[in-house]
Amino acid sequence: MAEDRNSTPVNSGRRARKGGRHGKAPAPRSTGRKALLGTVWTLAAVLVLGGAGLGYLYYKLNGNITAVNINGALDDDRPKNVDNGSMDILVLGSDSRAGQNAKYGTDEGTSRSDTAMVVHVYKGRKKAGVVSIPRDTLIRRPACPKDGKTVPAQRLAMFNSAYEVGGPACAVKTVESMTGIRMDHYLEVDFSGFKRLIDQLGGVDITTTQPIHDQKSHLDLEPGKHTLNGEQSLGLVRTRHGVGDGSDLGRIKLQQAFIKALLDQIKSVDLFSSPTKLYDLADTSTKALTVDSELASVNKLRGFAESLKNIGSGDMHMVTLPVRYDPNDPNRVLPIDSKAREVWRALRWDKPIPASATKGSAGDATGDANKVVKNP
Q: Could you please report the per-residue DSSP string of 213-251?
């Protein structure tokens, strides 16, 4: 099979996992969504630590969850899976401005993935590798199914256009084409739900070392310690004009720093101090989620959460896909093929991402992560 310009072949000799998974699920609701990995870990903490207290409310929470049938959409046109005890998850968000998200810009009738992370949970479930994919990355987008038809492949397309033209299934297929790794799960998180979740947690503590001012993302922070509310947190993970050169690479660094701070914050929350607070967190988390059909119930999500509960901020190795600026357009980036293959090869075989894979990459060279650090 021919190799994509930025990837290894999608059907690279991988041993098949036992048993197929092709359950049906309702079609997704047409709401705007914004993915952040920290929301997933918050839900994990709520379901695992407070699961027994939720009791009969599980049934009500099930009705909050939106599901998409990725397996049904893609059928067998996917990489074979590896039965090595690891797990790969595509965590995605979109920049839709519909409904409650209208204050962040005009909804033009389409959505593009604004945040994309491939999360590899290593065998043993004690560590994770996270690869952020810049939205401005030019990639070969494969042909994708949509509404019973096929969206043609495109040789050079922005990564975030996959979600726009084919929804979650096309986003998953594009990532699998790039990586040669089958995604075990798909997770997407709602824009406004993320804000409510942060507020219910009491905010997130961070320290800025430089001022960050961005009118477009409603962010205005001086250097120093801050407890960010939901609105400010959303502004922080969205800002690109208030830091560095205004590129998506700087925003990714901020997102990664924020996620680690959020994970530490979750540990300090006493979920048993108030049954109302426990339910509110669970209600907000489940309403914010869109998941693949294999996770489309609270019980399934709780089992998934169990596999993540031992992973803290210090157990996550977060990198950006190795890229270089496009010489023809400084607002776009291109994967560094050889280095990208190193990253995906490591995850495919459940190995740590080597430092050599990101050294010299434009994303690795971006220093904007130093603008936000978690409080000790």
A: EETTTTEEE-SEEEEE-HHHHHHHHH-SSSSTTS-HHHH
Q: Which two tokens stand for residue 226?
A: 């801050």
Helix axis angle, 275-288 to 37-49, nearest 10°? 140
> Is 24 within a domain?
no
CATH number of residue 343's parent domain: 3.30.420.590
- 2: tokens are 């021919």
* Residue whose pair of structure tokens reads 């993540």 in the numeric block: 308
Cα–Cα distance, 133 to 349 (Å, whole number):
20
Contact 174, 151 (CB under 8 A): no
List phi, psi (to 5°) of 355.
-60, -30
> Which residue, among 176, 170, 181, has the nearest Cα to 17 in the 3D structure?
181
Residue 3's pLDDT is 36
The 3-state DSSP class for residue 182 equals: coil
Rounded CA-CA distance 108/93 in Å is 17
Query: Is residue 134 in some structural domain?
Result: yes
CA distance linking residue 149 with residue 98, whole number of Å: 25
Domain region containing 353: 37-197+273-363
Which tokens belong to 368?
């904007």
Number of domains comprising the chain: 1
- The C-alpha atoms of residue 50 and residue 283 are separated, in whole angstroms, by 12
Which amino acid does the sequence have at 164? E
Structure tokens at 294: 């294999």
HEC string of 37-61 equals: HHHHHHHHHHHHHCHHHHCCHHHHH
Q: Is residue 304 part of a domain?
A: yes
Determine the Cα–Cα distance for residues 239 and 224; give it in Å rounded to an integer: 18
Instruction: Say if pTM beats, i.e. exceeds, 0.90.
Output: no
> What was the pLDDT predicted at 143?
96
Of the chain, the end-to-end C-alpha distance in Å amounts to 49
State the DSSP code for 109.
S
Those residues of the chain that have pLDDT short of 50 are 1-36, 49, 52, 96-110, 112, 367-371, 373-376
